[in-house]
Design a protein that fits this description.
404 residues, mainly beta, five-stranded antiparallel sheet, four-stranded mixed sheet
Length: 404
């Protein structure tokens, strides 16, 4: 290779990245060598910046509406509201001078109470003041309306409209229960006598020729006749004689609805002697009740001794005394002794009545009874703001306790 002896291939140290370089001296042009092998793939470069956004495309056609979704679960029911109770009457607003009752104070009214209040600004118009649940002041409904007037008279009834067309017949309902059997019809005429067969000869069983057997044979086997239900009993019957037997009414079988109707204000019983029950008047019934009460009357009054052991004693006595002993700023009598009971109690009774009747124009009063016992009614004094000479005073005292 003339003039090219100094041609040299550069070693790897002279190679740039991704390229192979040859240092060739100036010499004549030789034939092009063959293509070398492809070098290895280089590392991936960094991502470039995002390009600008493209133009928005045309909107597509709207799709068909989808089917409706199923209904959601119903929410819980809310708490019930508070009912109000409109009070009677019409009231005036706070601070108003109208001649109407004052509206009650809020704190003096109950929850739910409502009051019709005259509106000062509009004649004939009313507000509604309501005490709401848990409220601390009035809830006011302005221009609630006027007080309702009386209901007008009912208008005349309008003419009846034409009858509508008959509706379609409904389906047939279930068959009702069978009704009760009707009354038995009259017996038909007696038929002509038959020729008769067997051993029942007319000459034996119908000797008077009236068409009725003179007698019947006894039953070969006696039959039991029995009552059941609220009345029970039984007997044996063979046809030879009438049947009688005892019957028993069940406990609690006779209710009020099964008894005889009674007149008003009467009691079932018997006033005197034995016999069927009677409808007793109130006076007759009271007489029976009081027939068991022992009544005692003597100089110490009266006593009513009841069978239960309760006793009522009452006595009335008139005492003459002066009322002129100084007692502080008042005047009093000497002690007044009410005396013994008509019958002694088993223990000190309860005083259920004590009355005083004084002369006309003598103002006075009796003290409480003291010093009583089972047999002694007790004592008292009379007091008056004035001094009085001797007058008669009437006392009535009643005690209730036990006599046994």
């Amino acid at each position: 290779m003339s003039n090219c002896d100094d041609m040299k291939v550069v070693t790897g140290e002279d190679i740039n990245v991704g390229k192979i370089a040859f240092r060739i001296p100036r010499c004549g042009t030789g034939t092009q060598g063959g293509q070398g092998e492809q070098g290895p793939k280089g590392d991936k470069g960094e991502q470039g910046e995002q390009g600008i956004q493209g133009i928005q495309g045309i909107q597509g056609e709207q799709g068909e509406t989808g089917p409706q979704g199923i209904q959601g679960v119903q929410g819980p029911q809310g708490d019930p509201g508070m009912s109000i109770n409109i009070q009677g009457g019409t009231y005036r607003e706070p601070g108003s001078s109208k001649g109407l009752p004052d509206l009650p104070a809020f704190e003096d009214t109950a929850e739910g109470a409502a009051y019709v209040v005259d509106d000062d600004e509009i004649d004939g118009q009313y507000d509604l003041y309501i005490h709401g649940e848990g409220g601390t002041d009035w809830t006011v409904v302005d221009n609630w309306g006027g007080v309702p007037g009386p209901q007008g008279v009912q208008g005349e009834q309008g003419p009846q409209g034409e009858q509508g067309e008959q509706g379609i017949q409904g389906i047939q309902g279930p068959t009702g229960e069978t009704g009760a059997t009707g009354p038995k019809g009259d017996q038909g005429d007696k038929g002509d006598p038959g020729p008769g067969v067997g051993d029942m000869l007319k000459s034996v069983y119908d000797t008077n020729s009236n068409g009725v057997a003179d007698k019947a044979e006894k039953l070969a086997t006696a039959r039991k006749i029995e009552l059941t239900g609220n009345v029970t009993g039984y007997g044996s019957f063979d046809g030879g004689a009438d049947l009688t037997f005892a019957a028993t009414i069940a406990n609690n079988a006779v209710t009020n609805t099964k008894m005889a109707t009674m007149a008003a204000n009467t009691i079932k019983g018997r006033a005197s002697s034995s016999g069927m029950p009677q409808d007793l008047t109130a006076a007759q019934a009271l007489a029976i009740v009081e027939s068991g009460v022992e009544i005692v009357s003597n100089a110490n009054g009266m006593a009513w001794k009841y069978p239960s052991g309760v006793m009522v004693c009452r006595k009335t006595l008139t005492i003459s005394t002066d009322l002129n002993s100084a007692y502080g700023a008042l005047f009093q009598t000497p002690p007044i002794y009410l005396g013994n009971w008509a019958v002694a109690f088993t223990a000190m009774p309860e005083i259920t009545g004590f009355t005083l009747v004084s002369p006309e124009g003598v103002p006075c009063y009796a003290t409480a009874i003291f010093g009583g016992t089972a047999s002694y009614a007790g004592n008292c004094w009379l007091h008056s703001p004035f001094s009085w000479p001797t007058y008669s005073y009437t006392f009535t005292v009643t005690g209730i306790g036990q006599w046994k």
